[in-house]
Amino acid sequence: MWGRDHPDEQLEEFIAARTQDLHHDAYQLTAAQQPAEQLVIAVLADMRRERVEMAQAGTAARLRMARIAARLDAPSEITDVSQLPSEFRVLARLSPRQRAVLLLQVVDNYDDRETARELQLSSRATAATLQSIPYDELPGASPHSGELRSLLEAFGDLAASPSATTTLADVHAVPPPPRRPWWVYVAVFVVIVLTIASLVITQSWHNDWLRSPEGLNHTHGTHFPAYTQGYKLVAIHDVAPGPAEDIAVGASGALALECHPGDRTVSIAVSSDITGTFSQNECGVDADGPNLTPARGTALVSISNFNHDTWPIAIYRKVPWRDYPVATGRFVVGHPKTLDEARRQTDGSGHRIPPVAAGTVLTMQGTAERPNGTFTGQLDIPASVGLTELDVIGLISPTTTGRFRVRLNGEAPWVSCASFTIARYTQQHPDDWCALYDRHIPQVDFSTVDPSWSVRSRRVTVELSVQHARGPWSLQVAADRYKRDAGAVDDGANG
């Protein structure tokens, strides 16, 4: 740095050694003697106050002068241009900014990005300045030609250099910048305090936001999407393993458990105001989204896995169709199950139980032209042989989002609506529809075992109501009779 004990001595030494070079560079930028001297004095006065490193003083002075010149984009007003040698007249008519760009690129070999950075110009302003330079009127017609470099150096040699003593005296004569009033420092202090306080408050808000549904979804570290399967995520509730805890779900809701995808053995037990509902399902995410367990009112939730102190339970609320962001395209249709697989019965050992009387298969279809409405078909019931039970199996294969409702002789069957991993008895929800909202379009299967009308009628009226579908679908229904003593029929296997 400039010496703290004798700063003027080191400054005088620097000026004595470099005064000619400084005025040479300043003249290249200003194209006139008086402005060049003023530019040198202003830059040296600033460097004296800032105590710039001596080893970097020459380069620093050159770049500072170029930076000041680059602020002036208007052509230089020189009245005696005609008195200059003809080879210098084009340079003299350029703006200080144009000459500053030329100086850095031609003499110092800076590229466009470095030029913009050193002159504190935007890339667009630098490019515009380069395009405005009339290279075709300059020797070499290229920004990197040796002839143009020689011209710039010769142009700077036109400058006259005052003595080091005169330059130093002029630097000392530059008055220091006015001191800022006390209230400026107070204002700066207040701004700093408010900035720190706002950062602390913002961080606190951010931490709270990360525990909200929006924050959890934003971090992409959750299996709880904002909307899924007709539900909206409304809260996250931490449940400790052990005794059951109460969770307020609302009139129509569902719960989901998040856990590590590699450990799907964790399960929750849920009991709520839905009559007869006590379900237990594994955590994690399947192809359709989170495993949702329907609940209503106040749900009693328990977890038996003690690997964590608490487990996050997502609380979802049913959203009306008109308010849900229903997918309208780019559907992923998954129809892996066949009707034969759906109607297959097995005993307790996993062996298949053949039907004693197999019914015919009813097939109904909705077309792209008419996918919505109420569709009716008749399914023949097979004749009874001994003590048998009737098993009606149905499989709906949609291709788009939509709402589907099945009635068998006016009664609601058991339905696995693809929204949940458990079957639900729709007779408890007579107005319920099986709704597919999201892009993944699975199959919907339903069943009923030994219905009350099996002994009164030899036909089943199948009624399928469809709303909001955007494309074709198919429905297959079959009725079979099985021996009652052939083994217990697992209702859930059909749903």
UniProtKB/TrEMBL annotation:
Keyword Protease belongs to the record: no
Segments forming domain RNA polymerase sigma factor 70 region 4 type: 89-128
GO molecular function: DNA binding; sigma factor activity
Pfam families: Sigma70_r4_2
GO term, biological process aspect, one: DNA-templated transcription initiation
Keywords for the protein's UniProt record, in alphabetical order: Membrane, Sigma factor, Transcription, Transcription regulation, Transmembrane, Transmembrane helix
Bilayer-crossing regions: 182-201
Family, similarity comment: Belongs to the sigma-70 factor family. ECF subfamily.
Record protein name field: RNA polymerase sigma factor 70 region 4 type 2 domain-containing protein
The species this protein was found in: Flexivirga endophytica
